[in-house]
Amino acid sequence: MFSPPLHRQRHQFVIDFVKRNKPKKVVDLGCSECSLLQKLKFHREVELLVGVDINGTTVKKKMHRLVPISTDYLQPSYDQLRIELYQGSVTQKDARLRGFDLVTSIELIEHLTLADVKSFSEVVFGYMTPVAVIVSTPNSEFNPLLPGLVGFRHSDHKFEWTRAEFRSWYSMVCLEFGYEVEFTGVGQAPSGQQEGVGFCSQIGVFRRRGVRDGCNMVLGDDAEDVFSYTLLYSINFPSLRDNNTLRKVLVSEVLYWAEKLKSGWMEERTGEWSGAYSLCQTAAGGEGSSNNFLLPFVSAGRCVSVPLDVLWSCCPKISALTGSVCNLRHLLLDEPEVKLSQDGAAVLVNYQEQDLEEEEDHNDLEDSGYAEARQDSHTAEQEENWEANV
């Protein structure tokens, strides 16, 4: 009946809320197969993403959806993300879930008994005290429009509220725990019936009163620290804010660019032009300065010296990662993969044996007069051809 499907509309509602409000700490209660968490992990406004479900087996089967992908390691950003999954009941308190910016409860509350709904309200709104809560639940007034439906929409549902019953519950929550609510939903009725039956899934968006500038101060700090949930999974995504990750990325970039510039320097010596220099030439200030810019690349024994200021100027990523040549030098000092000059001002890149052989062969040929003889031979051959064609 719905396009997109109703479950996608519910998830998109949460995603749109996250985009607008940019919560840093989000927990999805009743995360089940982790499908909503899988979508939220790509929205890096979130720094801590938590899922809770009473069925640990289901969570374990699907939690592989939340692992970092290869690009997270190859191209880490400055964004931070930690994901945690817990097995536990939403009617029980756990101190690790206090003070979140957003709590979502998508099609969960109708699976609880009415006694458990009271405990749920006390745990979520009274103990966890998040800045915002999104609760969605079936609207029973819409059920007559669902083809072939007899009874509740799911065999595990303990109830399905009308719009008036849902309003009665969230009015009580707001009054008791200091929240205000916006009533909305997803899944519109056919034309002309929306006002009569409402949305297929009704949604309450709760916001805690007295919260300013998105700063969440946990209420009731004297509450007991209870840890009733079992941690099933936790992972920190690669981030450039982590010093180890930053160093790994930086070393990779430095080694790549040092090798690239070394190759270009050697090609310049043999009269060939390297594409690596077009970028360096621009960084150095144009064509007029290109020759001077190449002078610092000098051979030191069996090494080529690539100055750090050249690396910093040529590679935007290196400059972005370090901020200054001084920081670049500091970050590379203790890296065993990078060999620095004695004064720490340049990276030393080893000649490869092939590099040495090619350069020696080139010099030997020039010294032997081969190039001149080859030119003379080529000229004589041209003259013969011209004479034959006259």
From TrEMBL:
Comp. bias (Acidic residues): 355-369
Reactions it catalyzes: small RNA 3'-end nucleotide + S-adenosyl-L-methionine = small RNA 3'-end 2'-O-methylnucleotide + S-adenosyl-L-homocysteine + H(+)
Keyword Transferase: yes
EC number: 2.1.1.386
Gene3D superfamilies recorded: Vaccinia Virus protein VP39
Family in the record: Belongs to the methyltransferase superfamily. HEN1 family.
Keyword S-adenosyl-L-methionine: yes
Keywords: Magnesium, Metal-binding, Methyltransferase, RNA-binding, RNA-mediated gene silencing, S-adenosyl-L-methionine, Transferase
Top-rank EC class of the record's enzyme: transferase
Designated name of the protein: Small RNA 2'-O-methyltransferase
Cofactors demanded by this protein: Mg(2+)
InterPro entries (UniProt xref): Hen1, SAM-dependent_MTases_sf
Region (Disordered): 355-390
Biological process annotations from GO: piRNA processing; RNA methylation; siRNA processing
